[in-house]
């Protein structure tokens, strides 16, 4: 019962903060609202008993990526006055495109409540022991491949950051 | 999960919170006294016997000062900054096991607020959120020195978080758990983790210094270059909260270091003389506190002994020395744990 209330509260908060992300003029406020949205989503993960995912979500997104965004915005000193004005055509096409996306999402989720789950769901999969065992037994190859992907991204970043390659 | 349980937890939270605040308050007094001792002075001795009421006098001074908010600053964020700093500083105390459980009338009352199975990750999450208070405060001041101080603070914290994380992964490999309660429990007798992970412990302690922005890592508030760092524009109790958060962080990191590496509430040989579990639990709390006080003294000792780093030295230490060292520690730990398999491979 209490989880249902929490679910609705978190959903409400997540959507409100997400709306504020796009509606505020100040980019710093936008980033901070995005961080709050991440917190609300992490709350959802906790409700789904995926504590590891919640913690990692906070550490990676709120703690690392958003801090770097904040860095950039603070150093560039973006504010309302320097914000570039976009043309009417761009705005109109953005509205149409996102409206179409909304239509697709609503259409896709319309019948979702009638679908029966075919795989048996293990509610404890989000706990760290189970998740680790699953990742390193059943999904070892994709897991290692994604780590190679991250490594190559890191090497690429270092290469771009170097002024001259000897 | 009855009402009784919730009330007990609420009381525990209240106790831990007030102990944290009390210790942090008296750390300011201890800092002055230790500084005085190391510099061959007397230190504060006017307010009360041995100056013991000095923190109170400081607090009164902080509250009475004129409150100033720069007119161009972002008001809401300017106020949120120090609050966020305090919030994240107080949040870490939740996962620290302050002692074994006390048994009253057949019911166990654990002395840890939340023994979550992701305790260490929670700690990291809180640490990584801790940057925001300083960054928001520094940016909202609308002052170049504040902004530079804030950026220094956050880049320092982010850099040292990496080395800290890798050194903790080695600890997790040895203990096989992410729960702080279990880590403390495993270190009974002489099984302190510092004996298993000396290098990891050293790296962790250095990173803890950097994370709390204490000297020799106090570049964010380097007054010779940056006027006052990220809190240049702050006055009155808002400044007080920033400074106070540092002391809370120091207390909490001392508690974390004691729990992770120095046995937590365990003390070797004590089981020989004391057999009653309740007395053992209370003594455990006392031992943990003794360790924490020792580490707080160590923090202060270092602050008044070592000069501040230069900024490039700080970054070199973080990225070029501590991170490779912690990766080496990780590899060594891994190969020690797999030594039988490796030996068997070469014997073949």
Write the topology of this structure.
The complex is a heterodimer of chains A (166) and B (348).
Chain A: H1 2-23, H2 27-47, H3 51-76, H4 88-109, H5 128-137, H6 140-161
Chain B: H1 3-38, H2 54-64, H3 75-91, E1 102-104, E2 107-109, H4 119-140, H5 144-175, H6 180-186, H7 193-196, H8 198-211, H9 223-226, H10 236-261, H11 270-273, H12 277-303, H13 311-337, H14 339-347
Antiparallel strand pairs in B: 1-2
Q: In words, what does this structure look like?
A:
Chain A is mostly helical. Chain A is 74% helix and 0% strand. Chain A contains six helices and no strands. The longest helix of chain A is centred in the middle third of the chain and has 26 residues, at 51-76. Chain A is globular. The model of chain A has no long low-confidence stretch (mean pLDDT 84). By secondary structure, chain B is mainly alpha-helical. Chain B has one domain. Helix content of chain B is 69%, strand content 2%. Chain B has a two-stranded antiparallel sheet with strand order 1-2. In chain B, a hairpin with a 2-residue loop joins strand 1 (102-104) and strand 2 (107-109). Chain B is globular, with a radius of gyration of 22 Å. The relative contact order of chain B is 0.13. At the A-B interface, helix 2 and helix 3 of A face helix 4 and helix 5 of B.
């Amino acid at each position: 019962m209490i989880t249902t209330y929490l679910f609705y509260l978190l959903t409400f908060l997540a959507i409100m903060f997400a709306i504020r992300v796009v509606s505020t003029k100040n980019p710093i406020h936008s980033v901070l609202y995005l961080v709050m949205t991440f917190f609300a989503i992490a709350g959802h993960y906790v409700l789904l008993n995926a504590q590891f995912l919640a913690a990692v979500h906070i550490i990676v997104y709120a703690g690392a990526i958003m801090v770097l965004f904040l860095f950039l915005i603070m150093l560039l000193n973006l504010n309302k006055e320097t914000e570039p004005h976009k043309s009417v055509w761009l705005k109109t096409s953005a509205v149409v495109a996102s409206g179409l996306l909304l239509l697709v999402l609503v259409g896709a989720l319309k019948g979702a409540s009638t679908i029966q789950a075919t795989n048996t769901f293990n509610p404890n999969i989000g706990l760290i022991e189970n998740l680790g065992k699953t990742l390193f037994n059943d999904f070892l190859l994709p897991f290692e491949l994604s780590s190679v992907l991250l490594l190559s991204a890191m090497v690429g970043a270092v290469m771009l950051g170097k002024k001259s390659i000897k | 999960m009855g009402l009784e349980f919730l009330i007990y937890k609420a009381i525990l939270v209240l106790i831990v919170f007030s102990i944290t605040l009390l210790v942090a308050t008296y750390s300011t007094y201890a800092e002055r006294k230790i500084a005085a001792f190391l510099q061959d002075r007397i230190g504060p001795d006017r307010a009360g016997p041995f100056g013991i009421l000095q923190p109170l006098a400081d607090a009164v001074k902080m509250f009475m000062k004129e409150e100033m908010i720069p007119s161009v600053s972002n008001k809401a964020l300017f106020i949120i900054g120090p609050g966020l700093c305090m919030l994240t500083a107080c949040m870490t105390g939740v996962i620290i096991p302050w002692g074994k459980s006390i048994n009253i009338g057949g019911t166990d009352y654990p002395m840890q607020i939340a023994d979550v199975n992701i305790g260490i990750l929670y700690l990291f999450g809180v640490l990584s959120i801790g940057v925001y208070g300083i960054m928001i405060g520094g940016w909202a001041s609308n002052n170049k020195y504040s902004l530079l101080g804030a950026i220094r603070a956050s880049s320092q914290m982010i850099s040292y978080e990496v080395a800290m994380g890798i050194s903790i992964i080695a600890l997790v490999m040895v203990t096989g758990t992410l729960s702080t309660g279990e880590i403390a429990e495993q270190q009974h007798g002489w099984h302190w983790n510092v004996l298993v992970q000396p290098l990891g412990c050293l790296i962790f302690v250095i990173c803890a210094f950097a994370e709390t922005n204490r000297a020799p890592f106090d570049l964010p508030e380097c007054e010779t270059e940056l006027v006052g760092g990220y809190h240049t524009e702050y006055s009155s109790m808002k400044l007080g909260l920033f400074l106070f958060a540092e002391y809370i962080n120091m207390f909490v990191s001392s508690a974390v270091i004691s729990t992770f590496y120095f046995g937590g509430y365990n003390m070797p040989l004590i089981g020989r003389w004391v057999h009653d579990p309740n007395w053992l639990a209370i003594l455990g709390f006392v031992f943990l506190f003794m360790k924490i006080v020792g580490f707080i003294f160590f923090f202060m000792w270092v602050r008044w002994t070592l000069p501040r780093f230069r900024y490039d030295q700080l970054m070199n230490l973080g990225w070029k020395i501590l991170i490779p060292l912690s990766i080496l520690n990780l590899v060594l730990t891994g190969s020690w744990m797999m030594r039988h398999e490796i030996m068997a491979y070469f014997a073949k």
